[in-house]
Structure formats: C-alpha cells, structure tokens
C-alpha cells in the first residue's frame, strides 16, 4: 500500500510515518527567489564528485555526485567508502542556520555536518537505504533540504514493507528522527519524465 503524503503540507509537527519512526514536514522554508539563489551558488561553488561505493563486494562509481562538509574534517564511512569533511561555505552555513532556527521551537538540534547530493536528472536517484552508520548514533536526527526540480521521496518499512511517498519541492525541509533509520528505508525514486537537476542537503550530527 502506498499513501501520498504531499497533501499534509505544511503540517510541520505531523508525523508522516504511521509507526516506528518520526518524519516531520516543515514545508517550504526557503521562498522561490532565495531557493533559486542557493541552488545556483551550490551548483557553481561545490566541488562535486561522483560518489563511490562497495556493493556486494564490487567497487562502483555512482551517477549522482556528492560533497561532504562539517565543523571538523570528520571521517564518515558509508557503503564501504570513507570521506573527510570540508570546511563550511558561507552558503551552507546560512542554510544550516535557517534549518536549526526552524527546529528550535519544538525539537532544538545543532548539526555539525552535511552531505550534499546532486542528481542531474530523473535517471539519477538513490536506492533503498537507511542512514544508520555508527557515526550518527542510535537515533539520528537528519534534516533534509531540497533545491531544484521536485523529486519523489519514498519510505519503506523494513519488516512490513509498507510504503509512504511524498514529492520534495524546491526549498522544502523535512526532518527524520527517532527510530526512523532503525525501522525504515528511504529512497529518491527515478523518473524518465524529469530532466532538470536537484540538490539535496542532509544535515547530520557526527557523535563518535
């Protein structure tokens, strides 16, 4: 069963998951003109590079491109590859401040790192996975900001296989917290109908 969650916008404190996790949708937190400006700056100034991973013992290079930033040169290992964080840029620091201010009222969180993903078009996506690396702790809080063309974002429960889907819009913020990473997978779905790029910023806290 798949349920469209987009109709819930902008109920930021509603939980978009039915059980075993928390996903809050804060709606569009960056107006179109501001989102356009950040998108252009990030496209131009980020040292994008194709991500690498080890899957089923094979070394692959992904179609999407990534960059990793943080308070310190944190080592972050995912899919068998270790990256070192770059220093914050002015644009990323400004986006982080907005995100933290939005969370301050109900669920104050300070983030010390951010993983950026660039999807050039709808043929590039992210397969089912959880952000459950040890460096993020047992119940990580992950704030995701989207800039660029809307893309379908989906959740699938690890045990029941129940799904939830939503469209992530230009300038939108969602936050995953609680047991979400322990019980749910998430993915950026591919689509041949999408020709434009999208940038996702996922703010995290490295705890170890």
Automatic annotation (TrEMBL):
Pfam families: 2OG-FeII_Oxy_2. PROSITE patterns: FE2OG_OXY. GO terms for molecular function: catalytic activity, acting on DNA; demethylase activity; dioxygenase activity; hydrolase activity; metal ion binding; oxidoreductase activity, acting on paired donors, with incorporation or reduction of molecular oxygen. Its cofactor is Fe(2+). Residues 110-207 form the Fe2OG dioxygenase domain. Keywords: Dioxygenase, DNA damage, DNA repair, Iron, Magnesium, Metal-binding, Oxidoreductase. It comes from the Bacteria. GO terms for biological process: DNA alkylation repair. Its EC number is 1.14.11.-. PANTHER family: ALPHA-KETOGLUTARATE-DEPENDENT DIOXYGENASE ALKB HOMOLOG 3. This is Alpha-ketoglutarate-dependent dioxygenase AlkB. It comes from Neisseria animaloris. The lineage of its organism: Bacteria, Pseudomonadati, Pseudomonadota, Betaproteobacteria, Neisseriales. The gene is alkB.
């Amino acid at each position: 069963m798949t349920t469209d969650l987009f109709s819930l916008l902008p109920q930021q404190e509603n939980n978009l998951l039915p059980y075993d996790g928390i996903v809050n949708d804060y709606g569009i937190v960056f107006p179109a003109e501001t989102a356009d400006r950040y998108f252009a700056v990030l496209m131009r100034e980020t040292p994008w590079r194709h991500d690498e991973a080890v899957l089923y013992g094979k070394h692959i290079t992904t179609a999407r491109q990534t960059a990793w930033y943080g308070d310190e040169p944190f080592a972050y290992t995912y899919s068998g590859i270790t990256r070192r964080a770059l220093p914050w840029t002015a644009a990323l620091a400004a986006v982080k401040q907005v995100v933290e201010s939005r969370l301050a009222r109900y669920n104050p969180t300070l983030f010390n790192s951010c993983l950026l993903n660039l999807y050039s078009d709808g043929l590039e996506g992210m397969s089912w996975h959880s952000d459950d690396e040890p460096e993020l702790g047992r119940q990580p809080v992950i704030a995701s900001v989207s800039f660029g063309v809307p893309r379908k974002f989906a959740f699938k429960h690890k045990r029941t296989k129940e799904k939830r889907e939503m469209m992530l819009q230009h300038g939108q913020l969602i936050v995953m917290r609680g047991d979400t990473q322990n019980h749910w997978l998430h993915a950026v779905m591919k689509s041949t109908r999408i020709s434009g790029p999208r940038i996702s910023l996922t703010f995290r806290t490295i705890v170890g």
